[in-house]
Amino acid sequence: MAPPSPGKKDKAAGPPMEDWWLIRDAQGHAGWVLARMVDLDVPLEIAQYAEGQRFIAFFVLNEVQDGDKKVPQYLVLLTEPKDGQPFDFDKVHVFTWNVKRHRYETAYRERNLNGMLPVTVTHEDFGKEGDLPVFILRVKDENGQVSERKYKMNTPMVRRVLAPGEAPSKPSTVAKKKRKGRV
To answer: With b meaning 16 or more CB within 10 Å and e meaning fewer, what string describes 19-31?
Structure first.
């Protein structure tokens, strides 16, 4: 098949897509805003870890005591800096505070997600482990089915919490090939 000529538009590609966010201000006014025109007020201490990605959202999971101050630990949602993706986010990072070194460190990172908003952030009692921060991601699979994934943070460790009878998911074929450098 011959490549499309430069003067003709590829009909399969369709029109360029844009991302819009429904926002609400402090007075309760709501409206739609073009996503690429929104700058999130991300704390500078974690903004430096964006690695060229667009911040979609960030959440305080909890706070740790470091001397005389409390320092927040964060869940961060990221994506490529372009519009029209079939997902809301494709990367998740958790930044925890290292009390001994007085700095943020990446406690958890997951890539190649088809993540969908909203994300739930809460706390849950895990018995002997205590009351821990929990976050729930909504992820779309290859068939378009959205499922929830629950994670707990027992500083500095972040672990997936499997529902009764749930088996750990295996990485997709594409994700395996990317790790081996074949894509």
So the answer is: beeeeeeeeeeee
Is 95 within 8 Å of 73 (Cβ atoms)?
yes
pTM of the model: 0.79
Distant-in-sequence contacts of 39-45, Cβ < 8 A, 24+ apart:
43/72, 43/74, 45/104
Distance CA 36, CA 20 (A): 8
Rg (CA), the chain: 19
Chain segment 63-99, per-residue pLDDT in tens: 999 999 999 999 999 999 888 899 999 999 999 999 9
Separation of alpha carbons 89 and 97, rounded Å: 24
Task: Show me where the domains of the chain are located.
Answer: 41-165
Phi, psi of 45 (to 5 degrees): -60, -30
Q: What span, in angstroms and rounded, lies between the C-alpha atoms of 46 and 76? A: 9
- Residue 156 burial class via C-beta count within 10 angstroms: exposed 0-12, middle 13-18, buried 19 and up: middle
Single-letter code of the amino acid located at 49: Y
The gap from C-alpha 112 to its chain's centroid, in whole angstroms, comes to 10
Note the Cα 67 to chain centre separation in Å.
30
Q: Which residues, other chains included, contact 1 with Cβ-Cβ below 8 Å and sequence gap of 6+?
A: none
Q: How far apart are CA 166 and CA 183, in angstroms?
A: 30
Residues recorded for the chain: 183
